[in-house]
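Example 9 (inverse folding). The structure is encoded as follows.
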């Protein structure tokens, strides 16, 4: 699983933690990044020209008088090589949307786009400056001899036929939105909905952008790139000590074996071999170093609440990753949920198999998760996982799942 903590490494092998930043607080900067790097949305930040996405215009207000809905704004409008239009909207978070709201919004956007621009065959109708569009077409080495007028006409024709893409660029994308995206892309022949979750991290003049795309093409595929690494960093305002820390001098670190000596008391050796001594203290020490403050608080809330529910809590894991394992003692000693030190939550459906009673508990657990969290996992997926960004905002619902499940087992 992808960690939410990243580090910049200098020439001497020393590291500086990259702090997460709210990229959406500077919407103009975000639009500029997407305008000059459409590959961030297309799926390959380093291949903007190869993607063939041509910027038609910025900030297009789309208002359909026929429906009477308030206008919504497409922050950027692109056209791909086939002249299919791509309408991009930058949204700080999609976490507050319900599934019905998501589907309704997507359908309203599609209807208003087609109604307003399906017959808009001239640059003027799109509010596009023809000379500026011609420059962009030339710079992108698009179709030789094509004019702005013919390009816009081709886009309008594709749109009238129902071919378009909606791209939502966001800081947070909940599981519900991903499921709706997958459903819509399977049902619609010409419409494609893209969701790109973008995170930004900074450390001493360095920036890291991590776009993760969700569409009909399959599960999330993180792309680690630094598209704006070429420009020189901003003037340093660091102290001399930090400047010295990041000075790209030759490595001086020792690789002698004694550099890696580990005290014997750090490990407990039993009949089964060597195991890591994870407990509450070491677990939360590891959590503090890897997760954001709000996520650490969610983990602590989870831990305190499962104790109040009188569920069985044990500490496990290996030498690198520890786990907080939660079991229904009245049913099985095996965990039904495991929360790891990297923040990943595993739902241990695989431990509820092999016995009719366990199978019933597993079915009830899946049903409660769907009801409380709005998340459905494939029946063949016996150990599905959720990353911190997906489950931490829903920690209350997660605890209700455990509470409901405990009541179910008591009734049986």
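The amino acid assigned to each position is listed next.
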């Amino acid at each position: 699983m992808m960690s939410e903590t990243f580090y910049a490494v200098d020439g001497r092998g020393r590291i500086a933690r990259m702090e997460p930043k709210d990229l959406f607080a500077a919407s103009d900067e975000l639009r500029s990044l997407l305008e000059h790097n459409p590959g961030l949305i297309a799926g390959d930040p380093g291949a903007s020209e190869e993607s063939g996405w041509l910027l038609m215009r910025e900030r297009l207000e789309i208002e359909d008088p026929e429906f009477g809905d308030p206008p919504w704004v497409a922050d950027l409008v692109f056209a791909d090589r086939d002249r299919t239009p791509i309408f991009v909207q930058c949204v700080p978070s999609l976490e507050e949307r319900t599934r019905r709201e998501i589907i309704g919004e997507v359908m309203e956007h599609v209807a208003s786009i087609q109604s307003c621009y399906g017959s808009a065959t001239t640059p003027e109708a799109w509010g596009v400056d023809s000379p500026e569009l011609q420059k962009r077409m030339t710079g992108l080495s698009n179709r030789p001899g094509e004019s702005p007028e013919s390009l816009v006409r081709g886009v309008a024709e594709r749109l009238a036929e129902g071919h378009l893409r909606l791209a939502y660029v966001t800081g947070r994308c909940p599981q519900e939105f991903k499921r709706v995206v997958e459903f819509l892309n399977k049902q619609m022949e010409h419409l494609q909905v893209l969701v790109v979750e973008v995170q930004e991290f900074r450390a001493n003049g360095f920036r890291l952008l991590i776009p993760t795309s969700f569409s009909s093409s399959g599960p999330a595929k993180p792309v680690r790139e630094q598209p704006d690494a070429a420009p020189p960093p901003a003037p340093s305002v660091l102290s001399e000590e930090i400047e010295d820390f990041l000075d790209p001098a030759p490595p001086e670190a020792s690789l002698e074996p004694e550099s890696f000596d580990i005290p014997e008391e750090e490990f407990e050796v039993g009949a089964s071999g060597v195991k890591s001594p994870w407990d509450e203290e070491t677990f939360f020490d590891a959590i503090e170093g890897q997760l954001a403050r709000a996520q650490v608080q969610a983990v602590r809330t989870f831990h305190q609440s499962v104790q109040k529910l009188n569920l069985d809590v044990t500490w496990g894991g290996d030498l690198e990753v520890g786990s907080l394992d939660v079991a229904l003692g009245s049913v099985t000693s095996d965990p039904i949920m495991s929360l790891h030190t990297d923040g990943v939550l595993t739902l241990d459906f695989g431990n509820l198999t092999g016995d009719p009673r366990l199978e019933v508990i597993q079915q009830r657990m899946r049903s409660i998760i769907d009801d409380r969290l709005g998340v459905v996992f494939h029946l063949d997926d016996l150990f599905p996982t959720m990353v911190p960004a997906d489950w931490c905002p829903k920690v209350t619902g997660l605890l209700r799942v455990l509470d409901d499940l405990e009541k179910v087992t008591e009734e049986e």
